[in-house]
Structures are given as structure tokens and as C-alpha cells.
Amino acid sequence: MKSLRVKLIFMFIFSNLLIMIMLGYALYFRTARHVENSFDEKLSETVSLIDESLNKYFNTLEELTNSLSRFSVFSELSDNITSYKNVKTSVGKTKMIAHSDYEKRVFELMKIYMESLSDTFIISVGAQANGGVINYPPTDSPDGYDVREAEWYRQGVSGGGKTVFSSPYKTESGEYVIACTKALLNSRKKISGAVSIDADLIYLSNFIHKSQGSGNSIILLLDKSGKIIAHSSDPKMIFQPVSALGIPELDFQKLEEILHGNKSVFTVDGKPSSFSSFPSKITAADFDYLVITPVSEYKKESVMILRIIVIAVLISSIVLVVVAVITAGTIFNPINRAVKAMRNISEEDGDLTVRLPVRGKDEISNLSFYFNQTIEKLRLAIQTLGEGTLNTHKTGSSLATNMTETANSVSEISMDIEEVKHEILKQGGSIIAIGTSLQTMLRTIEELDVHIKSQTGTIGESSGFIKEMVAGIKKVAVIVQSNLKTLEELNKATDSGKIVISDTVTLSNVVLESSDILLEASSVIQNIASQTNLLSMNAGIEAAHAGESGKGFAIVAQEIRKLAEDSSAQGGKISGLLKDLKEKIEKVSSSAQKAQNEFLNITELAERTKAQEKSVMVSMENQEQGNIRVLSAMDDISVITGKVQKVSNEMLLESNRVSTEMDSLAEMSDVISNTMEKMASGTMQINSSVQEVNELTQKNKELTDMLIAEVEKFKV
């Protein structure tokens, strides 16, 4: 059968552990949801930055195409460029070279553009008159190739004089591109051809891969038909439908649901992955982003938090076990001592001197106090009973002896009245024995007087000990008063700390706002670098038109372009550093806020400690008053003991007087012998009564022997 201690410990640990597990469970799922939302926000921010950069890239491509179409060299286009429409060779293709001065001029202009546009794949010019084409860098042209049948050319010519972007397509050389095309007009404002600059989709995939940073997410750029335009990790997937990802559940209808904002989870390479979409703001085409993120990416921080929560619960469980055991020991140890004492009294040596320690003012302390009071009263009762029984036993023994002697004397008196005088002599001997007993009682009273003197000295020592205890309590009160002053100083220090932390939080918020301004400045620098690059490129083109006289200006334009590229690169680095700095400032602000909360907790704990110290001070003052009362009581006991000693002395004097009177009684026995003759008539009746009293005396002696045996079972 389990004890109350085990039941209490189990109930305490189980209830608290259940509460901690429930709190940990709620905290974990709340934190996991917050981590997932933060991850989605960060992913959305990354995709937004990529989309903004790609939009600028396509806008720049459009501006370059517009500027290229405005050069006067293309007003002479007509049929001045080579046509491969009617060409047939044994190998099926012809190497493209400049066949005329006009084509050399066009090649030179394309070269200047190509050097400033390292991100493009190819620049093409097609003629409406004969279907001829010029590409830079030069490529092999297939036999019978008519540029007027090319998709990019038809879209550019049908654009109504506006710059248009073609649908993604695969070039003759096997590259995947998007062409930015614009129709060329002659002097009569009629279409004479079209010019295009190709954007390499491999470059877009690599750009997305570099821009997404660390992490295992895959970012896809899709057109409205579900075709992959760019793939951040596998460029070979370009121009493949989404079904090529190898996910049977991901059909076109499911893809439409995802693109409309409904997240889904599919298995990719044996791992569950989350599919989410983000709309693109690229003005050149209608695209969407599809982001594939392993679910484990979401769970990294959640798993770490779960481990922390589990460790915290385990540590708390250990602390709970220790606290429960200590608390149960505090409650049940006094009870077990009481049980042990009662068992000792009832089953073993009956020790009535045992006492339970009294600590505190709780119910256990009250139980111990009243247990001690009860045992003390029982001890005094048993002690008094024992002493009375011993006295009764002595008196009974003496009475039994005397009654036996008296019975014999009465029998002899009834047998022979003549021996009365002899019996009176025996009576005189008895009187002498009584005198001896009185002498013994006199010695006992003297010993009692010695014990009373010893008790008086013990009471004096106890009074001294109580005085020392009162002095110790006063010292403790002084220490508690000092602790109260220290707590006042601690409150002042925590107030100053709260002010400093508050100033730190305000300063970190100001620095955080300043970091946003620096990010905007970095963006402005990058835009300036981009415009400077475009300006230097136009300047290089104009220098090329100027011929020999513009070579110096061309060198200056090239240096400006390099400077703009370096500025753009440095601006990007600065932007990254500023973003990292902003994140660190946000962490500093969060840490300062946490420190401010901790200072508030410290202040509250200091106030609680101060209140407890004041309570201890009041208790010490009450204890001091109680000890003063005990000291006064000890003085009263000392006075009473003096009075008892005085009475003992008086009893000693009276005993001496009794002894003197016994001597006088012996003298009076002679007088009694003269009256014995008068008693002869009642001797027979006295003899009968004496026999009955003798029997009762023997029974009384037996009963007192039994009572003494029972009293001796208790230790008092």
C-alpha cells in the first residue's frame, strides 16, 4: 500500500509535468507557425528582389533595342545585306561574314553594343526586301534561311513601331532566348526590316540561382502555358513543361490553383516539398514564379526549438522531483517521528521523555507542539501515579507488618490478659520504630531541600540562556534592517538600469530607421550607375560615328562605362552589407527590449523580497516580545521556588518537633498500660476486626505491587 508521501509526490509531479507539457506543446506549435510565416516572408522578399532585378534587365534591353533602331545606318538597309534564301551548299549552312562595306559598318556598330551587353546572347538585323540577315557574333546561317519567316521578326514587324518581346524560343544554334525586337523604318516611314537583341535564358537561370542566396529552395520562372523559362538549379529544364518535374499529381489544373495562391505539398526526390507561387511584375512578358521548398527547411528552426522545449521540460521535471521530495519530507518527517514515538510508547519501552521538534507556525508545528504537551501531561500523571503508588506500597507494607503484629498482639491479649504489660513494652518498641521512621522521613525532607536548591540554580541558568536568545534575536533584527536598506539601494539601481535600457531601445530604433534611408541611397547609386553605363554606351556609339576624331572620346566613354560597372557592383555589395547591418540592428533592438523586460522582472522580485524581509522583521519583533514574557515567567518560577524552599525548611523544623513529641509519647506509654485493663472487654471484637483488616491489607499490598509493575513500564 502506497504511503501518503508517495501519493503526494506523484500527484505534485504529475500535475506540474502535465501543465509543462501542455505549455510546451502550445509554445512549439505557435513558434513553428511563426517560423513558417517568417520563412515565407523572407522567401517572398527574395523573389521580389529577383523579379525587380529581372524587370530592370528587360527594361534596359528594351531601351538598348530602341536606341539601336534609331541609328541612321539602318535607313539604308533595303537589300544591302546578304540573303541566304536561295543559297544551297553541300554542308547545309554558310558562315556569316561581312561581304560589303555596309555590312562592315553594321558589324562594327553591333560589336560596340555587344561589348557593353555581356548578358545578351546575340544581336540580329533582318531585311524586309530580300529576307537577308546579319548576326553578331557571326553565326552559320542555314541554307534557304529567310529571316522574314522567323518568329521574332514577324512579332517585331507586327508591333506597329513599338518594341516587343517575342515568346521564348530556341535559336538555330540551340540556345534558349527571348528576343527584344523593333521594326526599322526607312526614310519614307515604311518598314525596311527589324532589329533584335536576344536575352539568354541560361543567364536568367544563373542570375536567379546567385540571387536566391543560401538555402535549398528551387525557383522556377514560368510562362502562362506552364513552360519553364528559367530554373535556378537545373538549366536543362528550360523549355520543359512543369510535368517534366516528375510529379504526377501536379497537372495543369493543380498548377493553376498554386499560381492563384494556394500552397500545396508534393514529394520531390523522396522528400515532401512545399509548392508556392509569386506573381511577376516584369512588363516584358506575363510570367509567374513557382518556388519549391523542402518541408525540412521550414522545420529546421522548429526542430531546434522543440529540442530546447524538451530539454527545458526534462530539467523542470528533475527540479520538480527534488522539490516534491523535499516538500514531502518537510510535511511527513514530523508525522513519521510522531508515529515512531507513539509506537515506542504503545509497543516498546514506553518512553514518555521523547519530544518532537517544533519549527515554524504551520499545522505540523501545531501537531508537534500539542503532541509534546499531551506527552508531558501523561508523563506527569504517570510520574505522580508512580510516586503515589510507591508511597502507598510502602505504607501498605508497613501497615501489613503492623497489622500482623497487632493481630498477634491482640491474640495474645485475648489468650492471656496477664501479659498486657509485656505487650505494652512491645508497644513501646513499636513507638521507637515509629521514631526511626520519622528519622528516615526527616532525612528525606533534607534531600528534598537539596533538590529544591539545585532546581533554583537550574532556573537561574535557564533565565541566562533566554536572555542570550533575546540578545541574538536583536542582532538578527539589526541584520534584517540592513537587508531592507540594501534592497532600497537595489531598487534605485534597477530604476537607473531601466532608464539606460529604455534609452538603448530608443537609440536602436533610430539607427534602424537610418538603415532604411541608407538602403534607399544604395538603390539610388545603383540606378545612377545603370544610367551612366547607358550614357557611356551611347557616347561610344557616337564616337564610332565620328571615326578617327572620336577615338579619344571613345576611350573616355569606355572608362566611364567601367567606372559605372564598378559603381554598380560596389553599390550591390553596399546594399547587401546594409541589409545585413539592418538585420543585426533589429537583433540588437530585440535584445535590448528583452533586457528591459528582465529589468522589470528584477524590480518586481526586489519588491517581493523587501516585503518578505519586512514580514521577517515583524516576526522577529513578536518573537522578542514572547521571549521577554518567558523571561518574566522564569523570574516568577524562581520566586515560587524560593517560597517552596522556605516551606521545606519549615517542614524540617516541624519534623524535629515531631521527633521530640515521640519521645514524650514513649513516656506516656506507661500511662497507657494502666488503661489496658479497661480495654480487655473489647479485645475479642478488636481481634476479629484486626483479622479482616489484615486480609484487606494483604490484598492492598498485592494490588500496589501490580500497579508498580505497570507504572515501571513507562520511562518518565
SSE blueprint:
Elements: H1 4-69, E1 93-95, H2 101-116, E2 120-127, E3 133-136, E4 140-142, H3 151-157, E5 164-165, E6 169-170, E7 176-185, E8 191-200, H4 201-211, E9 218-223, E10 228-231, H5 252-259, E11 264-268, E12 271-279, E13 287-294, H6 295-347, H7 363-415, H8 420-546, H9 551-679, H10 683-711
Antiparallel strand pairs: 1-4, 2-3, 2-8, 5-7, 6-7, 7-8, 9-10, 9-13, 11-12, 12-13
Brief descriptors of the model:
716 residues; alpha+beta; Beta-Lactamase; Helix Hairpins; six-stranded antiparallel β-sheet; five-stranded antiparallel β-sheet; 10 helices; 13 strands; 70% helix; 10% strand; rod-shaped
Report a brief summary of the structure.
The protein has 716 residues and is an alpha+beta fold.
Strand content: 5-15%
Question: CATH homologous superfamily name of the largest domain?
Answer: PAS domain
Low-pLDDT segments: none
CATH architecture of the largest domain: 2-Layer Sandwich
CATH class of the largest domain: Alpha Beta
Helix content: 55-70%
How many domains would you count in the coordinates?
3
Shape: rod-shaped
Task: Please tally the β strands and state the result.
Answer: 13
Look up the CATH topology of the largest domain: Beta-Lactamase
Straight-line distance between termini: 35 Å
Radius of gyration: 59 Å
The profile of the biggest β sheet is:
6 strands, antiparallel
